[in-house]
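Q: Okay, next protein. This is histidine kinase from Prosthecobacter algae. I've checked the sequence twice, so it should be correct. Can you predict the 3D structure?
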Amino acid sequence: MNGSDRIRILIVENEGLVGCDMAACLNGLGYRVVGTCATGEEALRLYDELQPDLVLMDVHLDGSLDGIETAKRLQKKGHVAVIYVTACADLETVHRARETNPHGYLLKPFNQDELRLTVEVAASRHLADKERISRERSYFETFQSLADGVIAADLAGVIVFMNPAAARITGWPQAQVVGRSLHEVFRIYHASGEPAAVELTSASQTMPERTVWLTALDGSRVAVQDRSTPLRDQSGQLTGVVILFRGLSVPVSENLPAPSPGERAAQAPLVDVVESISDPLIALDSRWQLIYANASAQRLFERGPEKLLGANLWDLLPTATRESHYEALSHALLHRESVTRELYFEEKQTWLEIRGHPFAEGLLVLMQDITSRREEADRRNRLDRLESLGLLARGFAHEFNNLLTVLLGNISLAEMRLRSAVQLPELHTAKQATLQAQGLVQQLLTFARGGAPIKRPTLLSDLVEQFFLHHSRATRIEYRLELAPRLPNLAVDPAQIRRLLGNLIRNAEQAQPEGGRITVRCVAADPGEMFPHEMLADHPAQPTGIVIEVNDAGEGILAENLTHIFEPYFSTRKAENATGLGLTVCESIAKAHGGSISVRSEPGVGTTVRFYLPVDADGEEVDAMGITTAFDAAPSSASPRILILEDDPLVRSLIVRNLTSQNYEIAESAEGSETVRLYQESLQAGHPYDLVILDLSIPNGMGGVRTMERLRQLDPEVLAIVSSGYSDDPVMAKPAAYGFAAVLPKPYEPADMLRLVKTVLAQREVRK
């Protein structure tokens, strides 16, 4: 039985269509969706009845409880994993959500792969947590019930656990033991009075039973038989010890000498086994001098015992290390506290985690190489920054694109009004700047989310040629175009392909600061020309399609850097304020189109980047006007009436002015439920609307998808256009799947809207 078979999922989602889609997807992946509901109150009731392992939780719910408060109450009921599935990305909501320690945060809109990956990670983490809790509970119950004493200590001999039997034998209360030194509580001596060391055994060793004398808290002597077992982590490194012992009825010898304070201080727990530790371990006195170093420490510092013992710790480390860590270690030494620090050992170019524990008058210091862990943490940090950027992009893109729509629309209207009288270059410049701002927002969205392309039939060779007509060429760079004739049309997102091409050309220009040559080829793919040794982001299964290739004669890429070029934020030009996002965006665009991007480079010779796109690129296709070819239009009407859903008053005003100028009858609404009411009233009056234009995202209200779901229940023949600043939304890429006839990405020019509306309305005659 795999993990997905054991995971029971409850979906708490106030949008019925979204909840049904998620349930169908998860059931298809082998998970068991045990229920769906729309309110927090119902979720709490269903939890008692269904006992789910995982809850997919929307933040905004019907009823008095929101998703975050519901999650808090669910977690009080039992061990349940929560994934927030929401369109809310504001900092206050994210902060509140983090307080519930969720297993995931899936931002709407999302695709099936994002849902699958988020649930897989959450399910694996939940199952691991359950197994750990069960194991720990089993160990705890077993140790607590043993008649023998049990003491567990870490590597430095600091006690972390003691059971009731051990407390009874030693005389130490359990509450006072944790955190104390092992040799303070478990003081054992041979019959001769000599201190006895802890002797570790393993599963493969059989040690003869021994009897030692334990000095209890009240000073009395107790004969005990003990056996000690090492604790090791998953990699096999020694991390501590477990001691099992039982009291014996043996009379105490009157001649047994009492141990002196010096003998007690000199007694070092685990001293007989430290040489088996693969990590460097040193002991320091109160003056920072090394009084012990195991073999691993000698290898780290490349010194033998004769040169290492007696040396000052700070003389072995760079000056910068002392400045960074001296205060913390001194505080631990003075106050007899444990300390953990991470330092960079420049001589070996490694990161070390040093854990210091009080030991005699000094510190016992364990050093562990954490270079790989730091590198992994840096990688996770980059991914966290990527996710944060995604939240940021999703949070402001809609509002920003609304503003760009208003700017672009009013500039375009001003151009049309003044065209007959005078031409103002200032208006043209403002319009171009607005379009560039649009490109930046879309690049951010593509990078952060991967981007669902809005595909249209496109001749790639024409697109490349048009790109260079408007491209600002760098000085001393020769540009060569090799465009093959008679290439087939492909369904691509022209804006995303221009963005990819722009990033590749910019990289090629920056690789030749003193001038050079850039060759751009757009040709049919030839399997014989595919590079056998290039660094591929993703191999295409069948290399039959079209290739856009950008070649430069620049400085090239070093072999050690070539494997990192697609990583977010990786750049060799940090001094030039390069972001390291260009090729990451290109890879996202390539994958979103079902293609691949590959790089071949040789230092001093140049770099060739190849974008491959299969002819049968997957995805729903829309025509040049953004109208889905899969849509069958509604019946015609003699008097076109249009209903608008748009929450932004400036955008709404622009749409109304634009459409009324063409004598359309317009009704406007700012929230989905109002749109549904107006449509229903018009339908009942016998004057249905001919077209509905719906904004996809309505903060704190019913958005375009749910509104369309309600409208289709009222009128299966409803004709609608979806508009949004979220161009990466799956609805924008597959409008027919959600019932829409066409898409209108923001920002747009008024003329584009008019052409789209007229074309969609003209299609009403198709069914007739």
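A: Here is a summary of the prediction. The radius of gyration is 35 Å. Confidence is low (pLDDT under 50) at residues 252-274, 617-626, 628-637.
Q: Noted. On to the next one.
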